[in-house]
Fold Threonylcarbamoyl-AMP synthase.
Amino acid sequence: QTKRSYIDGRHPEAELLKEAAELLRAGELVAFPTETVYGLGANALDASACVKIFEAKGRPQDNPLIVHVCNRAMADNLVANWTPEAELCVQHFWPGPLTLVMPKTSKVPEVVTAGLDNVAIRMPSHPVALRLIEETGLPIAAPSANLSGKPSPTSGSHVWRDMKGKIPLILDAGACLVGVESTVLDVSGGIPTILRPGGISREQLEAVLGEVRVDTPSETQAPKAPGMKYRHYAPRGEMILMIGSSERIIQRMGHEIQKGHARLKKVGVLCSLESAPFLHNQLPELLFVLGSKNRPEEVASNLFEGLRLCDERGIDLILAEGVEEGGLGTAIMNRLQKAAGKRVLYM
Ligand code: TXA
Ligand code: MG
């Protein structure tokens, strides 16, 4: 039996936080909103509570969890060594969508880091997340609150669909502001390296840190963030990502819609606000506007809703328009590319 409690995103009700905190202290799971996506939380210091996370999500055991804290002292307990780069990141980007990978202390259970020597830590800025951690008085391990392999949940309804019957409580504060997950940055030593692009861009990091690298896994080298090797955000239907000039994309999409219909496929289109009027008359079964080309924040916040909607509507073929790389666009394209698998068309 899962309880879904609607909570005020700006001024969370004290009784609801107390109830959630009690569950967490008792070793239970609670789903809660952050500014990026919803998290599935457990007491990070309790190994058996954290094991429940992997069970509820169907998550592979070798994929480590991010630990959420509400202040520096809580993080100090978990981190063996802060580099100058880590300190700068804390000053400039916490609380916010930046996760720091640093050497762990023995207080962090093995299951949290999947046996790695480093732990991933972030201080979220969402009032519900911050107040919940404060009220619990414990660091909270939390991956995204979706079933493993599905798009991350950016609303309470997404969490409800994936987690109902599996966890005791969902705190529902409506839609998440950012909509893509945090940037995972290795600041354990040497040149800071982005392991997963996300809510804080490389450009923003470089303005503070100087040179920042990006981990680019290859056929022969596994990604340093174990989670990046899995096919994430995979919708049920086949998906084609199109990158390039809007005119060519619109033309090609029109063609693919007709081809899909000839094969009796239900076709879904995920596109920019600017392209939508030109695709409307091709009569796709779903036309989902991700947002304006000039507002990547808008696209980021709608992205996972769009992917999930395609599944809900039984779409067989998804045609997605890419966005420009750089800034938040890099994180958006990373998620779109993962959802599309290898089916990317450059035009
Ligand atoms: O925005 C977010 O980061 C959300 C919210 C809930 O905070 N959380 C999230 O967690 O996206 P999850 O578990 O879905 O993704 C965590 C990513 C995975 O790719 C994982 O492999 C990587 O971070 N990661 C976690 N701990 C790590 C570690 N010690 N070393 C390297 N990568 C790590
Ligand atoms: Mg996830």
Notes: The CA atoms of residues 101 and 186 lie 5 Å apart. The mean pLDDT is 96.
